Amino acid sequence: MKFNTKPCEEKMQKSVAAYESNLSTIRASQANSAVVSKVTFEYYGAPTRLVDMASVAVTDPKTLTITPYDRSTLKAMVKAILASDIGITPADDGSVIRLIFPQLTEEHRKSLAKQIVKMAEDARVAIRNIRRDANDDIKKQKKDGEMTEDEQKISEKSVQDLTDKYIKQIDEISAKKEKEIMQL
Predict the structure, then answer these.
(1) How far, rounded to the nearest angstrom, does the alpha carbon of residue 52 sit from its chain's CA centroid?
(2) With the C-alpha atoms ordered 42, 44, 47, 50, is the resulting torsion angle positive or negative?
(3) Ramachandran angles phi, psi of 138, nearest 5°
(4) What was the pLDDT predicted at 184?
(5) 81, 53 in Cβ contact below 8 A?
(6) Which residues contact 102 (CB under 8 A, 6 or more apart)?
(7) Looking at residue 168, what is its pLDDT?
(8) Is 181 exposed, middle or buried (0-12, 13-18, 19+ CB in 10 A)?
(9) Are 43 and 29 in contact (CB under 8 A)?
(10) Quick check: helix, strand or coil at residue 14?
(11) Segment-wise mean pLDDT, segments of 10 residues, the chain, 184 residues
């Protein structure tokens, strides 16, 4: 009985998707609405995502405009942006919040590249952990007599092939993002 790699592949796909989502929050000197996607603030005692309570628009390559649906939440949103790790001071005129993205310095680009490398390594570790769990299941099935030694080797190879495929995807995504940051 050959090992079913479908659940393993689905978990690896989710790991790559989570990595891409995390990368989108890195500020690359161009206005990008994803930088505020994880910002939350208190709204009637409950933590609420800023993007759920405001219209977020890129007005030009360097400016992000946030228009709250409820103007009474403006101050709380500004406070949440200041408390977040975005690194941009919001400017509000009483009805709209503007985030103006400054040009990146060489030093800041290098630190962002290091951050990308660390995030990529975390994603690779997640993929390898999925591989380890799958290989443990394969060994258990072999031990329980549910598969032969040949089936075990074939199953382990197919899991390794999946691992290589998804790690290669992570490397490609990382290289693209690093290149994008270093060229700005």
Answers:
(1) 19
(2) negative
(3) -65, -45
(4) 61
(5) no
(6) 29, 62, 88
(7) 96
(8) buried
(9) no
(10) helix
(11) 84 93 74 81 88 88 88 89 83 88 81 90 96 93 89 92 95 90 74
pLDDT of amino acid 100 = 86
> What SS3 class is residue 60?
strand
Q: What is the dihedral of CA 118, 120, 125, 128, to 10 degrees?
A: -160
Residue carrying structure tokens 């790790």: 85
Cα–Cα distance for residue pair 152/146, rounded to 1 Å: 10
Residue with tokens 């009474």: 72
pTM as predicted: 0.69
Say which residue the tokens 């691992």 belong to: 163
**Distance from C-alpha of 5 to C-alpha of 155, rounded to nearest angstrom:** 8
Residue type, 42: E
SS3 label, residue 54: strand
Question: Between 106-143 and 6-24, two packed helices, what is the crossing angle to 10 degrees?
Answer: 170
**DSSP-assigned beta bridge partners for residue 40:** 49
